[in-house]
Amino acid sequence: MATRKDPFVNFNFLVEIDGITRAAFHEAGGLDSTVDVIEHREGGENITTRKLPGQVKFSSISLKWGMSDDTDLYRWHRQWVDGDPAAPRKNGSIVLLDRQGQEKARWNFFNAWPSKWTGPSLSAEANDIAIESLELAHEGLVRA
To answer: Which GO terms describe its molecular function (predicted)?
Structure first.
């Protein structure tokens, strides 16, 4: 008898940045890459063009989390805003977990730095959690 294989759920994940695990994220996205297509026309071939792979581009990783007293990610972004020559690039992972908390998939990103920080939208009429977000530019993404 065949074993049933359910798809993974998308709400149980954590983020690791330089070995520090952070599990309280609301959302993580930008797990994609694109290979540019270079069209090349060869002499004597008037009907079609050849398609060759070009440069690989990675989308920025986007992270959203409920605002708290933890300001580590914001301070990392401020280092880049302030032009700190010691501002580090960091490696990290987004890890998808199953319902039992076991790792099912991992995406590793490399040489990341925070390119955009967004503070919470505040409203006296709302009853929502204050959400911060950060975009990370990076130089590579691999599903491990």
So the answer is: structural molecule activity
The domain segmentation of the chain, as residue ranges, is: 13-32+57-143
Q: In this structure, are strands 20-22 and 13-17 parallel, antiparallel, or unpaired? A: antiparallel
Contacts 24+ apart (CB under 8 A), 28-32: 28/61, 28/62, 28/63, 28/64, 28/94, 29/61, 29/62, 30/59, 30/60, 30/61, 30/62, 30/135, 30/136, 31/59, 31/61, 31/94, 31/107, 31/141, 32/58, 32/59, 32/141
pLDDT tens string 22-56 = 878 999 999 999 999 999 888 777 788 899 999 99
Domain 13-32+57-143 bears CATH identifier 2.40.128.20: no
Could you tell me if 134 and 73 are in contact, meaning their C-beta atoms sit under 8 angstroms apart? yes
The pLDDT assigned to 96 comes to 96
pTM of the prediction?
0.88
In whole angstroms, give the CA distance from residue 68 to residue 52: 48
- Cβ atoms 131, 123 nearer than 8 A: no
